[in-house]
Amino acid sequence: MNWFACELHCHTVHSDGQFTPALLREKARELSLDGIALTDHNTLSGFDTIAKDGQSPCVLRGIEWTTFYGHMLVMDCGEFVDWREVRPDNIDEKTREITSKGGVAGAAHPFALGSPMCTGCYWDFNVRRWDDISFMEVWSGPSPWSQPSRGRTFALWNDLLDRGCHIAGTFGRDWHSDPAAGEAFACTWLGSERAFLTGDGMAGALKNGRVCVSAGPLLTVRAVSREGDAWPGDVIPAGEADFFFAADPDRRKELLHPRDLRPETFRLVGTGGRTVSEAPFSALPARIRIEAAPGWYRGELWGTLGNETCLLAFTSPLYAVDNDWKEV
Ligand SMILES: [Zn+2]
Ligand SMILES: [Zn+2]
Predict the structure, then answer these.
(1) Contact predicate 302/325, CB 8 Å
(2) Quick one: which ligand is closest to 10's CA?
(3) Domain limits at 233?
(4) Which of 2, 12, 155, 214 is most buried when burial is the number of CB atoms within 10 A of its CB?
């Protein structure tokens, strides 16, 4: 599995961002990002102006549905789906239409108040069926590891996972302009079997849950069960499984890390948001062996940032299911 550094939430002059799409891509290149998603408010027009030159970073065609009831990121949708008709009570039909047209939908900043305070940033959609929502921005904006809304966002994510939904967790910078002094951001890493990232590869990783988010080091978790290797987003059989945690503290260190980040503990978190087991952080992969009960499992990396003890990185879940697991 190859892991690519991406920013999945970007605005340009085609909505309320300050950069042209070309300049945004240049800024992303300076950060050594492998991929960016253009997600202007209610328009796809920026994508048409981006050079399709095969150079890094690749660009995923996206749009941020910006409504009074919440914001939703829609990526790689083959045909136009009319965001103007979306209401809290027809969101399920809309997300169904998006996935049936090949798109990937994700909830943007579900508990953001907006800056300045705005209506619509908060997620008010009455989703009854989450099957067509592939990801949720559980970290958003500057210093997401210490934002007050992070607890509620993780509680919502955990609750949906407990109910059996398969939802990846992402970070969205909600990139509009150059950072203010002192602002630091996280990065979403997308996994692909291929050596090079493409827009299709980004959308596929989001759909399949091959996602890790980090304030700094790339954190990966590989599970080895009786059925072989598995990665975030995969289904594994319940029973004995080894989870191998690896963190690469040096990858893109100068560009993406806050300077005072210190990893300390790998944590395997499962159903109910409970800690299943822990291991001290090490440069070599750490193994956590468990008897996996049916449910979900994700990797977390904890440590300090400045004086604060906090979550530094997390993977999207793997899902353990009982005996006839292949049918699921
Ligand atoms: Zn938004
Ligand atoms: Zn936005």
Answers:
(1) no
(2) 2
(3) 216-328
(4) 214
Last residue of a domain, one of 173, 197, 214: 214
Cβ contact 57:36 at 8 Å: yes
Asked if residue 208 and residue 71 are part of one domain, the reply reads yes
Give the Cα separation of 73 and 326 in Å (integer).
Answer: 30
The CATH number of residue 239's host domain is 2.60.40.10
Ligand 1 centroid to residue 295 C-alpha, Å = 31
Distance (angstroms) between ligand 1 centre and the Cα of 28 equals 20
The Å distance, Cα 247 to ligand 1 centre, comes to 30
In this structure, are residues 107 and 143 in contact, taking their beta carbons and an 8 Å threshold? no
pLDDT, tens only, 281-298: 998 999 999 999 999 999
Examine the domain organization and report whether 129 and 220 are in the same domain.
no
Centroid of ligand 2 to alpha carbon of 9 (angstroms): 6
| In a shared domain, residues 42 and 114 | yes
Q: What is the pLDDT of residues 165-197, one digit of tens each?
A: 999 999 999 999 999 988 989 999 999 999 999
Q: Which one of the ligands is nearest to 15 CA? A: 2
Cα(first)–Cα(last) distance of the chain, in Å? 23
Whole-Å CA distances, 294 to 73, 192, 236, 255, 317: 30, 26, 9, 39, 13
